[in-house]
Amino acid sequence: MKVNNTIVVSVGQAGNQIAASFWKTICQEHNIDPLTGQTNDGKPPRGNWSSFFSQLGESGGGSYVPRAVMCDLEPSVIDEVKAKSGSLFNPASLLSRSEGAGGNFAVGYLGEGREMLPDVMARINYEIDRSDNVGGLILLHSTGGGTGSGLGALIVEAIKEQRPEVPILSCAILPSPQVSSVVTEPYNTIFALNTMRRLADACLIFDNEALFELAHRKWNIESPTVDDLNLLITEVLCGLTASMRFSGFLTVEISLRELLTNLVPQPSLHFLMCAFAPLTPPDRSKFEEMNIEDMIKSLFSNDAVFAACSPMEGRFLSTAVLYRGVMDDKPQADAALAAVKETLPLTYWIPTAFKIGYVEQAGSSHRKSMVMLANNTEISRVLDRICHNFDKLWQRKAFANWYLNEGMSEQQINDMRASVQELIQLYQVAEESGAKTIAKDVVRQDSGYRGPTLTAGPVAAAPEVADNKAQVSLRDLVDRRGR
After folding, report:
1. In terms of DSSP bridges, do strands 368-376 and 271-277 run parallel, antiparallel, or are they unpaired?
2. Which residue among the candidates 74, 258, 360, 431 is catalytic per the annotation?
3. 258 flagged as catalytic
4. Is the distance from CB of 101 to CB of 191 less than 8 angstroms?
5. In whole angstroms, what is the distance from residue 164 CA to residue 122 CA?
6. What is the pLDDT of residues 450-481, one digit of tens each?
7. Rounded to whole angstroms, what are the CA distances from 451 to 445, 446, 447, 458?
């Protein structure tokens, strides 16, 4: 059976900084030197290395190159990656320009980004063409910056036009005033979310507001830096991809396509949240190891999710728990997960959407760790916060000229804002339908009703939800600009 090849595309300052941390960590997990791309002992790398690396030269004597494309509209971060990564990356896949986007989505999408797009797509197509079995593409980007939002949206649009069969997981870092550097972040985020809603197969949210609080409370850092937040994100990404990179007696490879199939019940409901355990600082992990029951409980607590919301107050449409590390307590893990599942506010028209994966290969920081991915209706609270911040700026047309001067129109901006509002409403409808179903079940039980019992089987179809989302194609912006 062929291993699924996954390509990682990173865009903008935050995306590339996270990518550099991610690649360094998984190199260590596969026994690959993060400066040379060679194995430390001359033997083949550990695990299913070809899922994220391609090989140069003969087995045992060659080097291993990340399936990566890194791009930015200004050179500083890319230059830093080149300086610190030795000969790990293919230089042709590290792309930058000199101007930058100036914190403006329109520049990233309509201006400098569009000029850079052919070079970026040439490298992405190169990686796809040299893959034996493309399993999907992971996009790392921040929605607050001009490049991560504008060029990120442009790349997703171009991939879906040229390679519609390739699943795309957008890993999007949402802005927070606590770590804000650009006043126009709410604008950029709303515009980027419009594209992620229409074209990405799923969007995994990393909310800077929640990450800042986690680093402050769990890691006892008085004033968390961007590097601290990026390390938290790296922990999740390594756990998320572990089942793609390692297999064994208890592990079957879970491809990106399979993971998204289980987590996305409807195309419109594809915004995910995540949690990681144990949330102990990596340098103290071996001294403060949590037992398996406490780890599982912490995954589902409201104060541990990487989004500023309370998932236990919403509805879980689907859930995946990925465990990695020493397997001496797998029975306890199974029992604890079964017990927790009984307490979750599930949506009962999807009774079987709870996936569990095991990977025997431990991570580099923890002997045992877990990642939870959830499609939970509380994500609408995060999106609503972004919309609220957008509205505070837009009602006064603050900084609007930055976007209007680049070719966007007020009507197009209003349409994209409406598109995100409709997404929020879709999640609210899903939440209400789950609650109504529970209420009906209670009434039936009280009246002595003994209807059919739900059993494990195919995921039940969701009740029909009207999705009149505004199909705001950003190509309209280009057309308008050319008139």
Report:
1. antiparallel
2. 258
3. yes
4. no
5. 16
6. 332 222 333 333 444 444 444 445 445 444 44
7. 9, 12, 11, 19
